[in-house]
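[09:14] KT: can someone run the structure on this one? pasting the chain below
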Amino acid sequence: MNDIDLQFMAEAVAEARKGFAAGGIPIGSVLVSNGTVIGRGHNQRVQQGNPILHGEMDAIQNAGRLSSKVYARSTLYTTLSPCTMCAGTVILYGIPRVVIGENRTVAKTTYCEDWLRSHGVEVVNLDLQECVDLMAEFIRLYPDVWNEDIGREHIAG
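[09:31] RB: done, C-alpha cells below
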C-alpha cells in the first residue's frame, strides 16, 4: 500500500459515497493515467435503471474515447472487487493495473482477481475497512437492492 494508491482510492470512495447519497449502491471508481484522474464514476444501476452501469463501467465511460496507449499506462481504482463484466472490460482495454478497496463483501467472487492476474494485470487489494463498512451499511439498509445486483450466492460470510 502506498500513498498514491491511498490518494486515488480516496477519490473512488468519494464517488461511492456520492452514489450512496443518491440512493445507489456505494461502489466508486476512478481511472488514472500518468497521475491524473481521467474518468470517475459510481454504480448507477438504481439511479439510471441500467443493469450494466457499475462503478468501473461508469468511470471508463466517463473517461470517453481513449487510445490504447492511454489505457496501457492506466490504473483503475475501485472500492469493491470487480465482477466478471468489469474485469472483462479491464482486459478488453488493456488496463494493466487494478487497485481494489476491498474484496471481503464479495469473497466468493474473487476468482475475477485471479482471472485478471492470469491475463497479466497487477491486482492490489488495499483491504480498507472504510470500504467494507460502506458496503455493510448499504446491504443492511437495502438487502433487496444488493441481492438484485450481485445475487444471493455471492454474499460473503
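[09:33] KT: thanks! The helical segments are 3-21, 45-48, 55-63, 68-71, 84-93, 111-118, 129-141, 143-150.
[09:34] RB: yep, looked fine to me
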